[in-house]
Amino acid sequence: MKAFIITKYSKKEKLQLTQLAEPVAKANEVLVQIHAAGVNLLDSLIKNGEFKLFLLYKTPLVNGHDMAGTVVKVGSGVKKFKVGDEVYSRVADYRIGTFAEYIAVNEADLAPKPKNLSMEEAASIPLVGLTAWQALVEMGKIKKGQKVFIQAGSGGVGTFAIQFVKHLGAFVATTTSEKNRALVKSLGADVIIDYKTEDFSTILKDYDLVLHSNRDPKILEKSLRVLKPGGQLISLVGPPTPEFAEALGLSWPLKLVIKLLSSSARKQAKKQNVAFKFLFMRAEGNQLGEITKLIESGIIKPVIDKVFPFEQTNDAMAYVETGRAKGKVVIKVK
């Protein structure tokens, strides 16, 4: 099969298109023919080696985390899926490889593809959908009437999260550029801040939750200040926390490094009587199944900026890295 691989950790080197053997599905896995793959900034961060401190992959490896496709083989222990089923997934860490024609996926990480979406639309959903679910439902426990600040509302996570927060009955503020104001307004944003000309920290006050996705330390500091006492900031970009290191079962030297990395952010949060949390989302087929229901009922709609042909996977990654994508970028594999 054709696949795009990371030959070594590097910011400069592109993915290499190569021929690999078709994966073999184990007892609890299904073999999926990939029709489309979502492109995420995470794919670039993995390639660049920015997560190798706690998520070290052996190279060469096939890149890519999101996919939609058709089941072509099932392992002997698989119970939920059969050949011919249309599925989608954010595949598990250490089992990535969606920039390829086929992938073997644990059935626990799969969900039925929403019937009202194309393969390209479905492939845009898993990572951003699960990120929003795990941040806002699992960690944030958002309730009706609360106030949520979602940074970068026109991005992949932002476009999904705005719709999801409105479904949960909360009030939503977001940042975006003026040219994307109409988009985030159509998704349900109540307060829209032009990050180029306005300072959100002078506009927002007493928020229950901030979904933080900006790596600038000054933005993190300002984000903590817009929270009310007892509020929480959930960061998608770090720094990672000791709780995260504990959950991953990292060695004590790595736990110490991570504790030091996040010490400033945690001190700032404690000073303001708010919580600082870090989310590195995980594969979860059951949660994705709940997201399927929301999509099929019309509550959440995918937002796609561009679809690239498989041969232009590196161009798709480069476009995502610009930070200018409105919604998601997708690769059409089949």
From TrEMBL:
Residues 10-331 form the Enoyl reductase (ER) domain. It comes from the Bacteria. CDD domains: MDR_like_2 (cd05289). Pfam families: ADH_N (PF08240), ADH_zinc_N_2 (PF13602). This is NADPH:quinone oxidoreductase. It comes from Flavobacterium palustre.
